[in-house]
Design goal:
This protein is an alpha+beta fold. It has two domains: 276 residues, Jelly Rolls; 229 residues, no CATH class. The protein contains 23 helices and 23 strands. A ten-stranded mixed sheet has the order 1-3-4-15-12-17-10-9-5-6. Strand 19 and strand 20 form a beta hairpin. The radius of gyration is 27 Å and the shape is globular. The relative contact order is 0.12. About 12% of the residues have low confidence.
Length: 675
């Protein structure tokens, strides 16, 4: 059925990256430079180690594992990075390592879900895996672009090659911190910009053709080696001058002549099937089929019909798929997926896409490299946090900056029929080798929970997309306790990777146990002066007053951006995010099991309560419930006149007794392992 191969890109020439060693990439001259062109086929051969596309599978797997490192594992099973390594940044520079490719001629039981779930250790080691559907008749049915009416135009991203300004390069290393007294632009204004243009299909085809010709004329043998060497120009950085008024005037240095490249991205597919909404969205009209037959692999469009992400409301491009129509030189910036989820991309047709991956275990060292080599003024605008820069998804720099400092970087040349699946929290980027159509979506199984908790902790107070982690954890626990799962059943799910299953059960038991402990501790807190001698109480969500229920629904998750509008839908269809929980206004974390409110502050002001009444998660309530009332007393006259008891109420979707029983059932799945 399947065989594991090296990534099918080990040709000698400008398209083969493990062959394109650091020396060859660093020696490339800019277009028009005098002297021999080191990207010529002859010169590239001289720089490349001997490789073979016919190497035995066992040898290939062993070599790939050695290239990826064999250091001790951390809590997630990834490689540890010692304090000594982090401090020195002197790890030995390596070539890119090959991401394993599994060739598939038939659809296994549970399809892609089985392949993803049963390879947790490989995802941790390599950062990504590739599943190549060799048999064309087994490939997914392709998603289609939405039909357009006459005169409708496409929303196209216009990028440049090279990308500018360059915000990360060797010349920034060791530069002093910026003067905080100088008035500067905000972060987004200092990062590379992308324009947006409305174009007809004919206009886009013409522009893409002209762009490809311009790239080929300016950069001979435009491919991976050229891209890595030329994507940034070290001279095209911000040149800053301070005026007498203490303001900054900044221009981009260098003599650039960039080429515009075009990327038709983030497009919702044709929606005749209704699958542009998640099954967990009350407005969804689609229905999950019984688990698909083994005739074809699932398209990313329906992949989450059989995962826990499908139980959430619609988060476009996260639990529903989007289409990406690439052109030569168009690219996607360095980023990790929202909430450290896995990504699943399928190349339906066209030219190759080139991917670069940094495993989650390498993130601490990669972060250190980015801090050292990033424009200090840009880093200061991001509050010193490189992940704030990455969250904008606007920056690309050559992976050789990481390789030069010992960060492991994987590579894959994606061909039509390939599924590229990244692991949790994997930093990745890439570019298109020509016109192509790809479909992509995020996905997750229970192994994600520990990463989600890490993400919530790190991004507390600055989350941009709220994935209902707590709801998904509870629903997953309920299914497993009942012997069920979204694809197959609990026993099947466990059999795919028993050790990982036990780790996941431990994480769920630990989380729910802490929730119960925190709830009990809050209920036992001594009453505040405003509580009229009472302690906190509990009420079931279904039995709470109409005002309290409405208030909690009003404060449900609200993703940024314009409301979701999809073709082929009835007018007025809206996405109901209240089914996924409530967003704590103090830390940004989405809670589903319970929310803590003050009914008096909600019901006495009536409609005026709005978003101003106290609302907390269990973590914030013990220290902030009283201070929030002090804030209200400085508010409107209606708020200053509030009287009566202000004791908190814990509004629960699931009772403590139900959670205790759920924990007991989970422990039965791990007899002898959880005390």
């Amino acid at each position: 059925m399947a065989g594991t191969l090296p990534s099918n890109h080990l040709d000698r020439g400008s398209e083969g990256v493990p062959g394109a060693t650091l020396e060859s990439i660093q020696s490339i001259q800019k277009p028009g430079a005098a002297g021999k062109d080191p990207t010529s086929r002859k010169n590239l051969h001289e720089h490349m180690p001997a490789t073979s596309r016919d190497a035995p599978d066992a040898t290939v797997c062993e070599t790939a594992a050695m290239d990826a490192g064999g250091e001790p594992k951390n809590a997630h099973g990834g490689d540890k990075v010692s304090a000594q390594v982090l401090g020195s940044l002197q790890r030995r520079a390596r070539d890119f390592y090959s991401v394993p490719v599994t060739e598939l001629h038939a659809v296994p039981d549970l399809g892609l879900h089985r392949l993803i779930r049963s390879n947790s250790a490989s995802f941790r080691q390599f950062g990504a895996l590739v599943f190549r559907i060799v048999a064309r008749e087994r490939r997914p049915v392709s998603s289609r672009l939405p039909k357009r009416h006459s005169g409708d135009k496409l929303r196209v991203r216009v990028q440049t090659f090279p990308q500018f300004p360059t915000i990360m390069c060797d010349s920034f290393s060791g530069r002093p911190a910026p003067d905080l007294g100088v008035k500067r632009k905000d972060l987004r204004a200092q990062l590379p910009s992308e324009r947006e243009k409305r174009m007809s299909g004919a206009e886009l085809r013409a522009e893409v053709g002209e762009s490809a010709n311009a790239l080929k004329a300016a950069y001979r043998d435009f491919g991976v080696t050229r891209f890595l060497a030329s994507v940034n120009d070290p001279s095209a950085t911000w040149v800053r001058r301070v005026t007498a008024a203490g303001k900054e005037r900044a221009v981009i240095g260098g003599a650039l002549d960039p080429v515009d490249v075009y990327y038709l991205s983030d497009m919702s597919p044709d929606n005749k099937d209704g699958c542009s909404r998640s099954l967990g969205d009350p407005a969804c009209t689609a229905h999950a089929d019984a688990f698909p037959t083994r005739q074809r692999f699932e398209n990313p469009r329906t992949l989450n019909h059989h995962t826990m992400l499908g139980a959430a409301s619609t988060y476009e491009g996260i639990n529903t798929s989007l289409l990406y129509v690439g052109a030569l030189g168009s690219h996607f910036s360095w980023h990790v997926e929202d909430s450290l989820l896995q990504s699943c991309s399928y190349l339906q047709a066209g030219e190759s896409k080139f991917w670069l991956f940094i495993p989650a275990s390498e993130r601490p060292l990669a972060e250190r490299v980015m801090r050292e080599l990033m424009d200090p003024v840009v880093l200061e605008a991001a509050g010193g946090d490189v992940w704030t820069v990455l969250a904008v998804k606007a920056c690309l720099w050559p992976a050789t900056l990481f390789l030069n400092r010992g960060v492991r970087v994987g590579f894959h040349k994606m061909e039509p029929g390939d599924f590229v699946v990244t692991g949790y929290g994997v930093l990745h980027s890439g570019f298109n080798g020509g016109p192509s159509v790809a479909s992509a979506v995020n996905t997750a199984c229970t192994a994600w929970f520990s990463y989600a908790m890490e993400h919530a902790e790190r991004w507390r107070n600055k989350l941009t997309i709220h994935i209902p982690f707590e709801k998904l954890l509870v629903l997953a626990a309920q299914k497993l306790a009942a012997g069920e799962w979204w694809c197959g059943d609990a026993k099947t799910y466990e059999s795919l990777e028993p050790e990982q299953f036990q780790q996941d059960i431990t994480v769920m038991v630990s989380y729910l146990g802490k929730y119960l402990d925190d709830t009990q501790a809050f209920l036992e807190m001594g009453p505040d002066t405003d509580w009229a001698g009472r302690k906190a109480t509990i009420v079931d969500m279904m039995r709470a007053s109409m005002g309290v229920t409405k208030f909690i629904v009003h404060n449900s998750i609200q993703p940024k951006g314009t409301p979701l509008v999809l073709p082929n839908e009835e007018t007025g269809s809206v996405t109901d995010y209240s089914v996924d929980g409530t967003s704590c206004p103090h830390c940004g974390v989405v809670v589903w099991l319970s929310a803590i409110v003050c009914p008096t502050c909600i019901e006495q002001p009536g409609e005026e309560a709005g978003p101003t009444a106290p609302l907390f998660c269990l973590r914030c309530a013990p220290t902030m419930f009283g201070s929030d009332h002090d804030r209200l007393r400085q508010g409107s006259p209606a708020q200053r006149r509030l009287t009566g008891c202000h004791a908190p109420v814990v509004v629960q979707r699931l009772s403590n007794r139900s959670v205790y029983l759920l924990v007991d059932e989970l422990k039965k799945l791990s007899v002898g392992r959880i005390a």
